[in-house]
Amino acid sequence: MSNVVISYINHAFRSDAEVSDIVGSWEANAPPSNVLTTRLGQKAIASGYAGHSFRVYVSSNSPTETAEIGVVGILGTNILGVDDPTDISVDLFDDDNNVYTAYLNSDFFQSAEVGDGIFQSHIFFVVSTDLPLAVGKRIVNVRFGFSANVITGTKDPYTGVTSQSPLQIGGVWFGPAFKPANGIGIEGFGQSVEDNSKVLRSIGGQVWTSPEIRQRACSVEFAGLFESEVYAAAPEQSLQQLAMFCGISRPLIVLPISNDKDFTYLQGIYGYMPSTPKWQSVNKVLDPDSPGAKVRLYTGSLEIIEAR
Amino acid sequence: MILTAELKFDGGFDVKRVATDFYYSLPTDADGVQEFVGRITKVPTYKTEVGCLIWGTRTHSSIGSIELANTDGGVTDWIQLNARDCECVLKLLNQGDSYDSATTVTVCIIDSVEMDEQIIRINLRGKDTLLDKPLQPLSFTAAQAAEASSIEGTPIPIAMGSLWQVEPVLTDVNDLIHQLSDSYYSEILQVLSGGSVANPPTESPDDYVLTDTGFRMLVTPSARITANMIGGTRPTNFYTGDLNLDSSWTGGTPTDWIVSLFGATITKVDGIGARIVNAQTTDAPQIEIDVASNNWYFILGEILNLESGGISITTSSGTTEYRREGRFCAIGKIEGTDNVTITGLGYTDLTLGYLHIYVFNTGAETSEMSACMLNVCARAGLKIYGSDPDIYLPSNLTTYSCGLFSKTAMSSRDALQQILDSTNGWTFTRPNGLISFGRYSLASGSSVLSVSKLNLMEYPTYKDDLAPGLSTRVAGGRNWSPYADSELAGITYPNRPPFMVDYRHIRTGAYEGTLDRAYAHALSADAMPTLIYDAVDVQTESDRISQIVTDERGFWEFTIALDSVDDVADLHPDAIVLLDDELFGADNGKIARIIAVDGEYNDPKMRITVWGAANV
Q1: Which of A219, A265, B144, B567 could cross-link B562 (Cys pair, CB 3.0–4.6 Å)?
Q2: Which residues make Cβ contacts (< 8 Å) with residue A16, sequence separation at least 6?
């Protein structure tokens, strides 16, 4: 069972993605269309505290253009909490306009933890295989909804006191998921924080700092990838495709699945790889699906540094 | 912190906002929520070092450039924008801060825009570079030179302040008309002909009569003509109906102004000014103000976004057309019932960024040096009064009598520096964008920074102030055109020297006898030349300088860590720092004047040079 979800294709970042069905007031210079860029700092900012929503279409709603949706994300938000799990909703529409709605506790979705307002704050929904999508149907657009009860703003890291400010969203994500069957080893998920701050020391030993943005980083070690998970062709997800598609210039998401008891509280990272991933083959092992046969396993690794 | 840059291309018509990270101003800010795109990959550096005659240096300053990521081609079209001389405002702030309340670390000028592979580079320079304009843009036309052909194409003279022996321009060889200045003068004290004093108009028979800009000889002079005079000095704030066309202008016709559209339109452009559109062949509109007659006026303004046409400025002195973008300064006299009139030319579409009118002060000046500096700045098109001035003139800079005369091509910067050299002064631009002035003087007042091991990044270095340009003597009372001995036939020999010397007053400082040994060279050095007119003022300046050098002075240079990167707004030339550490030796516990700063915006360290540590 995979304990990590990676997503490297985001339909919202396609050049033909567009935002429509906008509900609520948004700042003229920070419109909802800002969620379609890879830069989470370029935000959509609501004006006021009423309910807001918008829908992201791809390729003029053509069902042939989308792939499976495995991960849905609301990225770079200032959401601090909700009164009710239904305050935030994600509606996935298929090409028959059937809708599949996710809330923070939806049966269809496993949600990662909401951010604490200090790190980059993301909300992720991992689509389970039980999504009752009709045969031959594909998700063609996604609506993101936020009720007036969503708590937004900033939180004082010392006191926990919140300062309210209108909803801000840096980006949205919906795309296929790459979930290697053997996942990553417990030892194979290293985490750290990169700090861009400037620190000076006077000759008297006093420390002078100029705090800057801190970015999370993680390294992922794949203990045993099947050959299909390394070399599968599109639309299947694979490590080689990830390397070819993203390189060091396209973002991806690495998301530990939070209901795995082996992991403590973790938050998915949206970022870029400083260098392309690597993999190598190891000895063949017995194929669990074909008694007597052997399959080739691969080990691999990638690193990601949070982007803003 | 985030460094934001507001680039006002095309005079403010096309404002581009970028930053080191995406930033959004608050809904409560004056311009509401504005997006600053996080494209800045390299922040500019800054370096300013003031200089003076005593140090043998000149002020120089530079601001680096902003580099913007252009990997997506999103800002490629910026290379086509009208950028030259447009304003750039840099601020430092944190996410969530109000833009209006954020610290401005510099207001500067865009020099040029370059594209270099995947980078757009915005080159910046200091606002004081606006002084790099001709002091006198006007020269004698063919019509004006009809009776004196040799003057055609030469600059029209300018006379300001108190002056000895200026040689006027003979503009009419037949009628013997002499021009001293392009505008108002206060008084002609004497007209000299080879040293002989001509009879003024108040005597009979009189040898000359006054004109608006000089005088006309009634007798043919036997020798070269010079004049002792007081030229036009301080332009004062006249405009009761301020056409200061920035965000403070609410639109409509200000008090005392008369606007006649005559088929043209004037439309307020928020935050920029007034757009004038005239689709007719005839000139329109007419914007005039009824001012007091028999006065001279400066009419300053700035033309932005010039699509076509231009404007003309009309006074009783004549009409001047302006058909190019940028700042302008017209000078003219109003007589009788004439008004100062600004007119749109045929087929005009432009925007006036501001319009100021100053009147020449006809009263006596208590500080001619300050008045001359304001005169020069106004001629460069700098706003010297109002809600949004370009300069800051410290009230205690100097109260000396002073004068400047020019018949040759000279920049406003050079003219200003000549005046400032009279008190070993300098000019620089403050972080808030105001062009300011200072001078060689010991620090006084409260300090903005205390320097010690707590914030020193390295051991400070010290260099003696060798003062190569120092002299115990100051020269003033400049004869702008000394006579040769052979020209003074009408004067007895003992009385000739004052007319022949370069400077009528050379005074030795009162502290000459107690100079620090490091400055012994000053005892035999040439007198420091100044434009100071009065002998008493020359003595005052000489005493002032000599008193400073009774102790050895020096330069301390060090790198400090800033408590906050936006502290850079307080640390500029002329700011005072406290040297508060035994590392400064005998200067420990003394205040000193900043004379140089060097650093990079948004960097927490700064290199500072201070001079002249003095007791608190």
Answers
A1: B567
A2: A58, A59, A60, A65
Q: Phi and psi of B271, rounded to 5°?
A: 75, 0
Q: CB distance B604–A210 less than 8 Å?
A: yes
Per the DSSP assignment, residues forming a β-bridge with B384 are none
- B74 contact partners, CB below 8 Å, separation of at least 6: B39
Ramachandran area for residue B11 (φ above 0: left; ψ -120 to 50: alpha; else beta): left
Question: Does ipTM surpass 0.85 in this model?
Answer: no
In angstroms, the separation between the Cα of residue A208 and the nearest Cα of chain B is 6
Q: Do A41 and B32 touch (CB under 8 A)?
A: no
What SS3 state is found at A128? coil
Question: Cα–Cα distance between B21 and B520 in angstroms, integer?
Answer: 56
Tally C-beta pairs within 8 A across A and B. Answer: 73
Cα(B403)–Cα(B422) distance, integer angstroms: 10
CB within 8 Å: B453 and A204 = yes
Tens of pLDDT along B528-587?
999 999 999 999 999 999 999 999 999 999 999 998 888 999 999 999 999 999 999 888
pTM (global) more than 0.90: no
- Contacts of residue B502, defined as CB under 8 A and 6 or more positions apart, other chains included, come to B475, B478, B479, B482, B529
CA B96 to chain A, closest CA, distance in angstroms equals 9
Contact B378, B298 (CB under 8 A): yes
Give the B-side interface with A, CB within 8 Å: 1, 21-22, 24, 27, 32-35, 37-38, 96, 452-459, 561-565, 602-605
Range B239-244, long-range pairs (CB < 8 A, 24+ positions)? B239/B289, B239/B356, B239/B357, B239/B358, B239/B386, B241/B289, B242/B356, B242/B386, B242/B387, B243/B274, B243/B287, B243/B352, B243/B354, B243/B355, B243/B356, B244/B354, B244/B355, B244/B356, B244/B383, B244/B386, B244/B387, B244/B388
* Residues from chain A contacting residue B457 (CB–CB below 8 Å): 200-203
> Judging by DSSP bridges, how do beta strands B225-231 and B158-166 pair with one another?
antiparallel
How far is residue B552's CA from residue B463's CA, in Å, rounded to a whole number?
11
Is residue A300 pLDDT above 70, yes or no? yes
> Is the CB of residue B569 less than 8 Å from the CB of residue B431?
yes
Q: What is the mean pLDDT of chain A?
A: 82
Contact B558, B573 (CB under 8 A): no
* Phi–psi pair at A281, nearest 5 degrees: -85, 155
Of all residues in chain A, the one with the smallest CA distance to B456 is A202
Each residue's pLDDT tens digit, B232-289: 877 776 665 555 555 556 777 877 788 899 999 998 888 788 899 999 999 999 999 8
- Is B570 strand, coil or helix? coil
- Which residue is associated with the tokens 């040769």? B484
Residues in A closer than 8 angstroms to B565, CB to CB, are 210
Q: For B279-294, give one letter per residue: b (16+ CB within 10 A) or e.
A: eeeebbbbbbbebeee
- What percentage of chain A has pLDDT greater than the value 70? 83
Contact B604 A209 (CB under 8 A): yes
C-alpha distances (whole Å) from A31 to each of A34, A47, A72, A259, B231 are: 6, 10, 20, 35, 60
- Distance (Å) from the alpha carbon of A271 to chain B's nearest alpha carbon: 16
Structure tokens at B421: 């050299």
Kindly report the nearest CA distance between residue B110 and chain A, in angstroms. 25
**8 A C-beta contact, residue B606 and residue B557:** no
User: Which chain A residue's Cα is nearest to B602?
Assistant: A210
- Is residue B463 a contact partner of residue B557, using CB atoms and an 8 Å limit? yes
- Reference A267, options A213, A241, A304; nearest CA is A304
Encode pLDDT of B304-337 as tens digits: 889 999 999 999 999 999 999 889 999 999 999 9
